[in-house]
Every structure is written in C-alpha cells, then in structure tokens.
Amino acid sequence: MHSYVRPHQYVVLRLPSEFTKIQKIEPDSTVFLGKFGSFPANQIIGRPFYLTFEILDNPDEKDGSCLRMIPAAELHAETLIAEGEGDGDEPDTNEDGTPMRTNREIVDDASTQKLTWEEIEALKREAGGAGREIISKLLESHQALDQKTTFSLAKYMLRKRRKYMKRFTVLPLDVSVLTNHMMEDQGAARIMEMRDEMIGLLGCWGNVHHGGNISLDDAIAAKPNGRYLVVDDTGGLVVAAMAERMGILYPHDGDDYEEQGSSDEPKKGETEQAQDDEQQPTEPSAGRPVRPAHMSASGNSITFLHPNKQPNLSLLKYFGYNQDNPDETHPLHTHLKTVSWLQLLDPNSDPIYAQEPEVIPDSELYTMKSNKRGAYHRKRNRWARVQSVVNEARAGEFDGLVVATLMEPSSVLKHAVPLLAGSAHVAVYSPSIEPLTELMDLYSTPRKTAFINRRQQLKEQKLQQSTDQDDTGANEPQDSELSELMDEFYLDPTLLLAPALQNSRVRPWQVLPGRTHPLMSMRGGAEGYIFHGVRVIPTQQTIQAAGNPSRKKRKVLTQQTPTPTVDSGSGADVEMKS
Amino acid sequence: MPSPFLTPGAKSQLDSLALLSLRRDQTIPTILQLQDEKNPGYKEGKVTNTRFGSFPHSTLCDQPWGSQIIASKVDTGSRGRTQSKKLKRKADELDSSTQAEDKWTPSPQTPVAAASGFLHLLYPTPELWTASLPHRTQVVYTPDYSYILHRLRARPGSTVIEAGAGSGSFTHASVRAVFNGYPSDNQPTKKGRLGKVCSFEFHAQRAGKVRDEVKEHGLEGLVEVTHRDVYEDGFLLGDPKTGKSPRANAIFLDLPAPWLALKHLVRNPPSGAESPLDPSSPVYICTFSPCLEQVQRTISTLRQSGWLGISMVEVNNRRIEVKRERVGLEYENIRGTVVFPKSVDEAVERTRAVEERSQLFRAAQNPSDGESTPAPNIESEATKNTSTSKPETETLDRRQEPEIPVYKQGRLMTRSEIDLKNHTSYLVFAVLPREWTEEDERRCREKWPSNRVQESQGPLKSKKQLKKEAKEQRNQEKQAQEQPETESQRE
C-alpha cells in the first residue's frame, strides 16, 4: 500500500508543532517549510513513509544531501531514559511521600530567561544543530530551571522543541490523515466537521466494502455486487473514504507487493490498471491502449448524487483524481459515477440525457475534419454515458446508502431509500442532532402504524370506488394512493427497519511514565451523529392479517411492545417490531 | 460458496447464514436449511420459533433479502412425539387430538400463514452479527472496531493479524475490510494480493468455534484460524518456527499482555526466523486493553522496539433514543404520557377549577357554617355552570385530539440509552515503518540525486498563468534563436 514516497504524489509533512502540511512531491523541486527551512524533494522521494527527518544546516559535501533520518531510538530517547530512571512511578518524592519539588517557590516572571528577544532572534539566524543549539542555550540561560519539577521541565523542553526543532515526518496522504488535516488546519466546516472516527463508523454502518471478484459465481448471483449510493457535500471526503474501503481510491494499490526488493522505476508508465477485478487490464496494444470507458464499471462502484449541475469532488485531487480531467488509469475513472438529483428524478429535463446527438453515418463521418469528428464522438459518448449511468441509477437495487449532506436528510432519504435493494444499509451523518431526530421521528413506530392503517383505509376506499365503477381497476390505484399518503407522511416509513441514532467521540490520552492522563484540551464544535437503518421490503399481506386477529393473540402482542399509541389494539400487529 | 457477509446476492440461499430480525437488538442468526438433523419432528422441516411466531425455513429460503416474512401456523406441541410415541403414554392420548388437527392442515409440508407475527429476513453484516453473536469472551463492538480498522488502514488487499479471536466479532469486521475477492485455484497472476485475516486463539475450544463459524459463513480461505499461544510461539502460519509468514500489514492484539507478543512482531527476529510482517509496507498495530497499567507496559515496549507515532485513545459511543414526549392534562388514561400541566396557563386553569369545585363542595357540605354563605340558588347555578362547562372543555379536548395524529403529538426529545457503555478498552496505536538500510538509501540517492533542483516552485499557479508563462517562454526562445549573442550575454 503506502510503502514509499512516489514522485508527483501528495504527501503530508508533519512538523514539530504538530502542524501538518499537504505537499505535492515533484521531482527536482524544493519543498519549503516556512521557518523550519527547506529541502530538495528528491531527498524524500523513494523513501519509506513515517520516517522523521532533520534538516541539516550544512549539506553533505559529497552529494549535497541535507536531510538526516532520525532513528526511532533517538525519537524516543528522552521518554526511554525517564522510564529507565526509577520507572517514573513516583518521581521526586521524599520519604514521607510528599513531592520534593513543587511550584511553591516559582514566581511567574519574565526575568527568569536571561536571553533577550534580540539575542534569541540572533541565535535563530546563526545557531546550527537543527534547533538543538537554541534550545540548549535557552536552557542554559534560564534562571529558575533548577526549581522546576521534572514534569514541568519536560513540558518546557517539549514546548521549546516544538518551536525550534527543524524536523518533519513524512506521512502518506490517506483519508484519515486528510481528515485530521482538514479538521486542524483548514476550515473544518468544509468537511462538515466530520472527525476521523465518524468516517470509520459511517463506512461500517453503511456496510461499505469491496464487491469481490465475481467471476465464477457471477452467473448465479446475476446481480453486480458492491454498488453504493453516496450523497456527499464535503467536497469528496466521504466519497474518498468509501472508495478507500472499496479499494478504488489509490491508483497504485497492490503495486508494492511485486516491486518490493527491486529498485523500482519511478513508474513503469500509466499502463497499469491497479487491481480492478471485473475489467481485466487490457493489453497495451501498439498504439493507444484500449481502456474501459468512463464510469463503466458494473460492480464495486460508487454512484455519487450531487445537487448542482457539476459534482464537487475537489478533495479527490489529493488522491490523483481530477473530476474535470480524469486520469484514465485511476480506478475511480471507471468506478465513480456521478448523477445529479435532476437527472435522477426528472431525467428528461436534463439536456444531456434527453437530447440524443444525431447519428452521423460513417461514410459522412470520414469526410469531416478530424477535430469535428472528435467532437462528434465525444458528444455521442457523453450522451451514451449519461444515459447508461442515469438509467442504472434509476433502476436502483443499490447495496448501501451513505449520506453526509447540507440538505434536509429526510428529502434525500425520501428519494434514495426506494432505490436500495432489500437489506441494504443506510448511514447518514450530520454534524448536529436536529436533522437526524427529525429523521428518527419520520421512521418512528407510531408513524409506521398510522401509515399502514391509513394505506389500508385508502385501499379499501379505492376498492369500493372501483368496484362501483368496474372490476378491472381494482389493483390499479397504487400511485394516487401513494401521493395521498405522501402528502400526509412525507416518506414511506415502512421501508426502513430499526432506525437508530448514535454519536461517537475519541478521547486521546497522554501516556508517559508517571504522567498518564487524558489530553487537556480537544476540539469542540459539532458533536457529530450517525443515523442508521436497514432497507426492508414490507409485505402487503400483513395488513390483511391485521384486520381480524384473534383476541388472545392481540393481547400477547401488545404486551410485548408497550407502544405509546392511544388505541393500541388496532395497531398491535404492525407495531410489534422495532 | 460465497459468503453472505460479503456477497449476499439478491436472495437468501440454502445452507447459508441469514439473520432473522425480530425487533431492534433482537436478531436470531440461523443457517437456512430445509431439514434439521438436530431437531426433527416438524412437519414443515426446520423451523425457527420466536416470540413472534414460528418460521419454517421453507418460507425463508430463496426470498429477496430484506423481505418481511409472515409467521406460519406450526404445530409446536406435538414435536418429537413421532419418535417417542411408545415411550410416553400421555403423548399417546394427546396424539389423537393432534391427529385431528392434522386434518386441518392441507398438506404436511407447505406451511400455512399465521394470523399475525412476522420478521424481516436480513443478510448478515459484521454490525448485525456483533449484536447477535454468541458471546464467548468480551466482544469488540462496532464503535471500537470501526475506528480501529480505519486507523489500522485495513483496506482491500491487506493482511490482518488478529490475536485473541475471542467471539469473532473483530474477525468478521476485519475480513470485510480486507476482502477484495475469493481465492481460487486458477488464480491469475495478477498484481496485488487478496486480503486475508490470520486469526490466532490460544483457547482450543474457542479456536474451534471460530473455525466452525468461518466455515459456516463461507469465509474459508479468507480467514485462517490458528490455535496458538502467540506469546510463546509467535505469528507464523503453520509451524511456529519454520512456517510461512503471513506478511501482515496490520495487527490487532486483544490479549491480556500484548507486550509479551511484541517481541515476535519485529522486522528481523533475533531467532533468525522469518518476520511475520510485510517487508514492503509500513505495519500498523492496535492493542486493546481495558486497564491503564496494561497500556503503560505496552507503550513502553513499543517505544523500545522502535514503533513510531504511538498514541492512545478511548472511544466513547452513545446510542441516543428519540421519543415524542407528551405532557399535558388531556392525556389522562393514555399510556406512555405524563399527566401533568404542560404550561403555567394550564396549571393555573386547573388549580382554579379545582379551587372552585372545592369551594362549592364546602358550601354544599355545611351551608350554615359560613357567614357569607352564598344563596342556595346561586350555588346551584354555579354547580350547574361548572358541571356543564367541564364536560364542554373535555369534549373540546377530545375534539382537538384527532386533529393532531398521535405520531405528531408532543415534543421530540433525545436522550442517551439507559445502559451506557462508559468504558470498553484503551486503544494503543503505533506504526512500524518499512525497513530502510544504508544500501537502500544509497540506491535511492543515485536515482534521485539529492542536489538536483530545477527551480524553486513558488506558490501554485493557475492554468491561465501557466499558459501565459509558457507563451512568454516560447517567445523568449524565439528571440533567443534570433539573437544568440544576447542569450549568451545574459548567461
């Protein structure tokens, strides 16, 4: 997977201040890290991730290298030493157990540091040793250092190190790192304040996973696996997270296994389609290799529903996928399909879908100029693509629905839930609880009961009317029935089983010898909630059965579920669940 | 056989696991079979009995997933009597009555729909399975494992080591995370590998149970269960000394003393055996310990053996109940409501009414006592007024009620579930980078010369800017061709 830094790849550089910076690593360029200095990108290309480097003041004479890899032992040196000394359990205590050194004598005073501001600035300019020199000077000239307890000294050192050490760690840019970066450094609002743990939870409750290599069993199943519906207003973060779970996010996935050991080429060329199980990588022919068409994957695909004409998937650029100019070798090229809500609900209003470009016979085509011919093919292809993608989306039978939207979640579920296959899971994220409580209410048990009763009532009415008129229309009035029901209930509450709401938060701790406690501060803001339900296919028969249940049975059932209905007798049969 | 967890298909199939969802948090896992060897005697074949009725498996098979299934009339009373007829006298007596019932059912095999009761037929997912699995040990629940797998970068194609298979909830979740295809014999030599979970369990019986589950759930080849004490014998597959390396990318240790297992999880084991880790990728680890002391020892050992990015967190998860709470005096005799004034106005009104009534009552009790006793005719008038007005308001209330349907009454409220899981375990995460030798570094420096820098890239430029620049450059080049002298001068 992420085994080494590839050229032209985005990586994350973590600085001593815990600040993270997204950086595209172009060969033969220089990377600037502000006050921490700069270094040539070539010096980290090809190196493994998670290593920490120190920027040296004097580049190596021989080959100009100015980075030093810091071994793990050195990074952990201080904590390991502290652990070695008396196990750190009860540090600095007298015989009677009281702490030997306290902050009783310490007066908060700027005069303890003898170096002036100007002197420190001068040090910053001159001192070498990647910041270590400055720190040791600062310590030397600190007056009250001997008064500090071990812990406060350690804290002081840490603070100074964060400020002056010229170190950085190279992290692979994956969804988790990107999420943390967005939450810390960039506008968290852009990703709807979605924390890392929420992304993990959302994917699990949505049951999002790889669709598998359906080769042998394909004929039996007759249904492509792993088709997910995603509504994402975070600029592509949720799409990226789901693609990561489905194994279609990283273009070089699986390459490492083969390459290991050999000193690999920068890249053997873009002819390698990474781990795409349904489409066998086509043999690169002499000319331009034949590729599977844009958005053509049948399974293991994401259908992205977007509110505007164009989808906003800007964050995908960090994973090497540009929506406007998609890289044909990227797995998302075939596996990510975009459909606007207009195309989904009223495709004939969409000009691209509805207006088929005229078919020009081949004979005429040959006479055209090449750029005109290209434009013609592009238009035809686009129309065909939109047709197939939209038709496929409208046909439904999706395996899961994952939502993180700024719109009303209820409006999304109203239209998206009917498109799911039975037993598919629905997971909705919202930064605040109110939109989701509304959703819970829309799928509440009393509502389900009322809905079923009302539908039954309407059906009987219609049946009477139709029998009055003629017999043929007895089974027809489904649609009008529904519209009346929908006016009253907004959405069909019987389609979702066991609606549940939860919230999750990760609490980080500091674990140091003798100093273990939860971190003093963490991010507040939106709490973050997840709604979950399972799409089911309600039977029409129950309603008939509910009409005349035996007295005894009804009693038993109402006991099982104390539901807050007024006339629990009538709704007992449909209420026993969820 | 494809696993119903990973590729359930469109319909339920015989001999595969299905979940029967009765209500929230009440799901029965069952293997769909027409006949039940362990429990014969039903005319309908294998039957699952629930509090909401009996469900012959013939009604559950080959149904679209998610279907609502109606309970059947199943004679649960006479079960087993066919064999033990001669043993029990009483059974014989009763048999005549059941035979009479037999005439009622049209055919012995096809089940008859019951008047009420139903369930939903769902395909299993790790989440539903975790909620319904048979507990053998402490279970790793969804909020924890979702975060763990996300942090462990367990993605399609990864190999995960799990030590302490326990109840198997993490096993199922991790196999879903790494799954990217079933292994087959004629596997094409494609790049990338198939995701796999290597599960280790030192408890023989539990290991056997997990192995059975893996088989029943169609996960064979995706999960490899090894009965092993990993503290002693490490993580190689097969033989502990000479076995094959699982080449793990991610490790999850749910052990009482994870630090004892860490000595095996190194790049170059001192014993000279093969490392169980994937040499070509960073390796992520997570340990799951309920106590802080365990965490401290684990982290100390991790630091000593060169793991980086060590962090410890705990996950707090709350399930939230949403209910409509109905408070008001009009909800008298309605279940699930609070009969209490819903506002100050209502309280004042009620108190006033009560006060008035008690005044009248007192007046009626002892009319001679009071000095300022109201005239009896007024009193009777007053009683008339209240007695007429009271029912009026009541009927008003009743008339208003049907206007707001029950499901819209009251106010929407949220609260945490009653049984809160306050602490599950502490999660320790760390990463071990790929090994990097001086030889690797030398080769890398040759390929990517350290000091080769073209030009410092300033802030990112827009496409327009780039085009403009390219144009300028071209112009310059043209000029340079025209006047080579100036070019050399410039340089």
From TrEMBL, chain A:
Its main location: nucleus. Coiled coil: none annotated. GO terms for biological process: tRNA methylation. One of its GO terms (cellular component) is tRNA (m1A) methyltransferase complex. Residues 297-306, 557-568 have a biased composition (Polar residues). Residues 84-95, 468-480 have a biased composition (Acidic residues). It is found in: Nucleus. Keywords: Nucleus, tRNA processing. Residues 82-101, 251-306, 458-480, 544-578 are annotated as: Disordered. Belongs to the TRM6/GCD10 family. PANTHER family: TRANSLATION INITIATION FACTOR EIF3-RELATED (PTHR12945), TRNA (ADENINE(58)-N(1))-METHYLTRANSFERASE NON-CATALYTIC SUBUNIT TRM6 (PTHR12945:SF0). This is tRNA (adenine(58)-N(1))-methyltransferase non-catalytic subunit TRM6. It comes from Aspergillus coremiiformis. The lineage of its organism: Eukaryota, Fungi, Dikarya, Ascomycota, Pezizomycotina.
UniProtKB/TrEMBL annotation, chain B:
GO terms for cellular component: nucleus; tRNA (m1A) methyltransferase complex. Catalytic subunit of tRNA (adenine-N(1)-)-methyltransferase, which catalyzes the formation of N(1)-methyladenine at position 58 (m1A58) in initiator methionyl-tRNA. One of its GO terms (molecular function) is tRNA (adenine(58)-N1)-methyltransferase activity. It comes from Aspergillus coremiiformis. Residues 391-402, 440-449, 467-480 have a biased composition (Basic and acidic residues). It is an enzyme of class 2 (transferase). This is tRNA (adenine(58)-N(1))-methyltransferase catalytic subunit TRM61. GO terms for biological process: tRNA methylation.
